[in-house]
Specification:
2 domains; elongated
């Protein structure tokens, strides 16, 4: 996501975290940011790095089917878990 969108969203989420977590907001927000950066790096790698075998190849194929075959299913990038939870798996 471009900084022009992600920075204002970060401030918004930090404000929400302050209301929800009080003095623990910084720790919770750091966890959110760390998780998002890990997700974003994996998404970038899925599109730009060769993955030749194993789980990473399977994840790459799973995600690229979302982009090039059926963009209404298969949103999972690091795991198909949430596709099962939200019933967005392919039939």
């Amino acid at each position: 996501m471009p900084p022009s969108i992600s920075v204002p969203l970060a401030f918004l989420f930090y404000g929400i975290f302050l209301l929800m977590f009080g003095r623990f907001a910084s720790s919770a927000f750091a966890g959110l940011v760390f998780g998002y950066v890990c997700y974003d790096m994996l998404h970038y790698a899925t599109h730009h790095f060769p993955m030749k075998r194993g789980v990473l190849l399977w994840l790459k194929q799973y995600h690229l089917r979302h982009h090039y075959k059926d963009d209404h299913a298969g949103y999972g990038i690091s795991s198909p878990l949430w596709d099962y939870v939200f019933r967005t798996t392919r039939r």
